[in-house]
């Protein structure tokens, strides 16, 4: 089954906890702190795999989680970092944040990677907190929490040439004649319910990839019929073969309708080079209509050919014409702007304060919530360090201005704290 949309949840690994430990060795009195740092949590990375052409793998597995880093050890030993989690996707995959709708990446080239969740860094051991006034620090950091995102993934097939037209124009038949593809073919509309790909040999050294785009009807840009479910696949093609049904009541009206629907969906589609092919020329009535139709198409600025996909008449000339037009257009990767590998969130130092239903105060912010999650609350030194961080970020002052009083409850992340002056 062809699957071209999916929604998944990805989660990077948590960093390993730093260790609180002191060197205990014979003949080494007061050896000092030697707690090691935790290892880094694994990233979640999407990577293009050219052998894939559908998102079917995400139909059954919808959650992907990287491993956590290991905790630090004694004698300043670092914890082991977790392996990154590689999730394979087909070329042409577009990734969005399902919550915000932000575009995160557009993966088109073989081996291209996009880091969608960064693993948490390992917590620091107590060695890092030693100073001239605190020779025996009993504090360390917990590992940084990982990130979690809900992603919406869409697949836009990457093909050199797209075959478009109304239902039953003969697109699937043409694809089967030009390539080794074996699409479903029958004499009724909407035989093609999913895009089909095929590879055609232009000569001994040149091949092109063709895509049969399911038939479009009036209102497709608004979702009518098979609608925009398949219009987005046209965006990846570089040249279009616009196949007209020679037996249609009004082929020119069909031609105008398809072009209008593509332009409504994406104005850039109207600028794609088109080669018009008048199909079913093996029928006498089609041959009679061709001269008048050809004049109208040439007058509109579109090169036009007459073919019969069923009898294979003129299909080779059509392929050569499309390949010639294709050679004049730069490859897709040269026209598409490069996407960032990873885009960090908003200013991590920013925070907000709001009231809770029980009369407390909730502090929300990337940096302060992360610091709370990395604080070992059973160590007095770690608690004092967190208090200094609140002062540094301006959270203390903001809470006082918000009206917090002695004994008030302050929520930061999943932690509930009692305010003390």
What does this structure look like?
The chain has 3 domains: 1-155, GTP1/OBG domain (Spo0b-associated Gtp-binding Protein, Chain: A, Distorted Sandwich); 161-335, Rossmann fold (3-Layer(aba) Sandwich); 352-418, GTP-binding protein OBG, C-terminal domain (GMP Synthetase, Chain A, domain 3, 2-Layer Sandwich), CATH 3.30.300.350. It has a 6-stranded mixed sheet with strand order 10-11-9-12-13-14, sandwiched between helices. Strands 3-1-8-5-6 form a 5-stranded mixed sheet, with no helix packed on it. The longest helix has 16 residues, at 284-299. With 421 residues, the chain is of the alpha/beta class. The model is unreliable at 183-193, 217-228 and 334-342 (pLDDT under 50). The chain is 22% helix and 22% strand.
| Backbone shape | elongated
The CATH homologous superfamily of the largest domain is termed P-loop containing nucleotide triphosphate hydrolases
Mean pLDDT score, rounded?
82
Distance between the ends = 64 Å
Main sheet attributes: strand count, strand direction, barrel closure: 6 strands, mixed
CATH topology-level name of the largest domain:
Rossmann fold
The SS-based structural class is alpha/beta
Q: Describe the strand arrangement of the main beta sheet, using strand numbers.
A: 10-11-9-12-13-14
| H/E series | EEEEEEEEEHEEHEHEHEHHEEHHHEE
**Strand percentage, roughly?**
15-25%
Overall structural domain count: 3
Radius of gyration: 31 Å
CATH architecture of the largest domain: 3-Layer(aba) Sandwich
Weakly predicted, low-confidence segments: 183-193, 217-228, 334-342
Structure summary, number of beta strands: 18
| Helicity range | 10-25%
CATH class of the largest domain: Alpha Beta
The number of helical elements comes to 9
